[in-house]
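We treat protein structure as text, and this decision shapes the records that our systems exchange. Because each token names a local backbone shape, the row as a whole describes the fold. An entry from our holdings is shown next, in its original layout:
>
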Amino acid sequence: MVGNILLVLIYLLAPAGVMWLCRRVSWLGKIGPVLILYVLGVILGNIWHPSLMGAIQEVLSSAAVPLAIPLMLFGCTFRKGETRSQVLAILAGIVSVIAAVIAGYLIFGKGIPDGAKVGGMLTGVYTGGTVNLAAIKVMLGVPEETFILLNSYDMVISFLYLTFLIAAGIKLFRRFLPTPPPAPYDAPGTCGEGTTCEASAESGRVRGLFPKVREYFSTEWLPLVVTIAIIGISAGAGALAGGWFMTVFILLLTTLGIVASFWKPLRKCKYNEPTAMYLIYVFSIVVASMADLGKLDISGGLNLLGYLTLVVFGSLILNVLLAKILRIDADTTVICSVSFICSPPFVPMMAAAMNSRRVVVIGLSSGIIGYAAGNYLGFLVSQLLNLL
């Protein structure tokens, strides 16, 4: 009994400890909380097995993602009046990811167990983010071992992708694509003209996750109540759908989260996104501890690595080619690609690397659209790949 209680406390509190360390140890901060929690989870799950470990894992992993999705969407503002190039850049980025996923499936995916589901997950994570990846994993019933392996490879390939862009890609694409004069980048977390960005960098999230308990619940009771209501409605509709429960549940959860995001009192709650990210961190360590290293398919893993690499760099190449055809400038193309592939927290960093303040807003906007569309696109692409 004591072991089970201790396990629950580790799952719930380990993310806070890891985030505290990432704030104070620079090299850990560069690695990031997700990868560290995955490593801790894998070690924990393979060396310690309390009596109720399976049940605890099932409850926490099943609860974290549904709670995170609406909270993530509540803080989104769906802006009007985007310019032609910005709208085309968003569409080009999404089309590039989907095309790369389909091409990768034909080359590598058929050699991967549940390759069509993996394609759906890659579509979700590379148009949205971690929350979409986790949601599609649950929706499609992807094995934990595949999920962990995909996340591990994603960390490596995404790092190489960002390194390439910063070291050579920005200069290369500015020679190939139109390049308007850059607006100086003021500081992380600002969108220019004194406007505060609605999506913060990872360090900003970390600092925002330790409010006073009283302050937190005095401001966050409304999002929590609405989230629970959305989960209840979605679960009820899913139960009526019978065998389609999880699909209906996740998609309705996303839809209601988008609808609720237009309610200003919800958008004003400043801890929506930090709370959602903390839930994703809890999910990360829990699902990592469910992986049995003895069951990892090495050959399937190599195909998965090839698939993921093709999607990341293939979508970048396709995105640049479409931008050339559509006359989209280099900075807008790069920031949208980064927002889709690495998620909005990396937008301020890349904007600083480009010394281009003006692209922060479009980068965050494309990421918001990706968060909203990722679950739908992931499910639809997985169904399409099953037909190929």
Notes: Residues 144-176 form the longest helix (33 residues). Residues 82-270+294-386 form one domain. The chain is about 75% helix and 0% strand.
